[in-house]
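User:
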Amino acid sequence: MIIPGVHQPTAPFELVINKDVWQKMPAADQQLVQLIARLVTFESWVKIGNEDAKALEFYRKTGNQIIELDADVQKQARKIGLDWATKTAEKDPAFTKILKSQVDFEKEWEGAVVRATAAPLNVIAMPGCPDIATLQALGVRRLSQGSGLARAMRGVAGSIARELLDQGRYPSFHRGSVGYAQANALFSDRCPSPSANPHLKALPE
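Assistant: Predicted structure:
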């Protein structure tokens, strides 16, 4: 089972009433119908969310493999959907109105987490994460790489090792690496110079 699904299902709740009949109804009855409709929608969504959580746990216990869809794939799928919606809106005024309502609603939630807390918000950079300018605009104060750099270095080392084992070659071993002088310069303010200690020898360039 892959979650979330590429095609996110929707379940709108509809109450269709003849407009002429509605206008003849007393105001108190209209308010009562509106209140009931809101309660039905709210309780239904709460129940659906609760049952979905139980179902997911059931699938796990019965041996189903739960795969979380890669963040990059989610982002690409969303872009494809938005591109389609934008092109469709160009030819359909009614669809344009619907799309604008959806986009405006999403904008209302942008930065909601940041606004909800007075503490500086830290974000860990992950695949699919917005760029720095977008995060700054939302109010993010710190962007962390977390273990990303270490994992990236491990990936490079693994690729080099695999190249040696599979091909008996190592052209990528020095690709993009810094020279000895640059590497030594990074620690020049922390290491004693060779002249200060005759037992130390300068590394070759």
